[in-house]
Design a protein that fits this description.
Structural class: alpha/beta
Shape: globular
Number of strands: 7
Strand order of the largest sheet: 1-3-2-4-5-6-7
Distance between the termini: 29 Å
CATH class: Alpha Beta
Largest sheet: 7 strands, mixed
Number of domains: 1
CATH topology: Rossmann fold
Helix content: 40-55%
């Protein structure tokens, strides 16, 4: 798995996990509002951008790879922030290895399975070839709040993602349920969702909050499913708090 490392190695680390169909570049607007000394680990998850050659097999396998990365770093507990698919991975990582995670920021995580997942994935397979067209990438980028400066990164990532990887990642995403270990996570947990997100996403945020008694829930005003790109300065403040 490709991982970018930034900042001062002596500082506490923050692991940033991107959403499905994008890559580590999506954190660029947030990074612009962070202290440049902030220690960051930013992977491209399997199947995405510079890790496009690696198959996305499951959330479980990906979390195992992330655990290996954190153990190799040997730098103590980590703040883990994830968006969408990456937020589900952050929840799983905190639930499975709380010794590695002292704080988790869960941004727009679906935690309620989508009805009729086979139909959804069949439609996805039929439309996946459109990703290579720039006009389609522009439409998708607008829906995801990708700014013009990152449009080339988005098109590169979406066009390089294979149909099997896309279907596998989305399949894991839409079937996700809250893991048992989440309730017992002893660290700090901040759960975020946009006030303008779909009802499913708002219900998911509330369910994650109920399942973690010590967590904090915030609905970000005027944000949709794109908080790191819509409100990067606000998210940077939360990450450095």
């Amino acid at each position: 798995m490709h991982v970018e490392r930034h900042g001062d190695p002596s500082r506490p680390r923050i692991l940033l996990l991107h959403g499905g169909g994008v890559a580590g570049w999506m954190w660029t607007p947030v990074r612009e509002h962070l202290d440049p000394r902030t220690r960051l680990l930013i992977p491209d998850l399997p199947g995405h951008d510079r890790s496009a050659h690696e198959p996305y097999t499951s959330h479980e396998r990906t979390v195992g790879d992330l655990i290996s990365i954190l153990e190799t770093e040997k730098a103590g507990p980590t703040t883990v922030a994830g968006f969408s698919l990456g937020a589900q991975l952050a929840v799983l990582l905190a639930a499975e290895r709380p010794d590695l995670v002292d704080r988790v920021v869960v941004i727009s995580a679906q935690a309620e399975p989508t009805p009729a997942p086979r139909l959804v994935l069949a439609l996805l397979r039929s439309a996946s070839g459109l990703a290579r067209f720039r006009w389609f990438a522009r439409l998708q980028a607008k829906e995801l709040f990708v700014p013009p400066a990152l449009l080339d990164d988005y098109q590169r990532t979406s066009s390089a993602m294979t149909t099997p990887n896309l279907v596998a990642a989305v399949g894991e995403n839409i079937r996700f349920t809250i893991p048992d270990g989440w309730r017992a996570f002893p660290g700090q947990a901040l759960i975020l969702a946009g006030s303008r997100e779909k009802a499913l996403m708002r219900r998911s945020a509330e369910a994650l909050h109920r399942s973690s008694p010590g967590s904090t829930l915030e609905f970000v005003r005027d944000a949709g499913h794109g908080i790191p790109l819509q409100q990067p300065e606000l998210l940077a403040r939360w990450l450095e708090h």
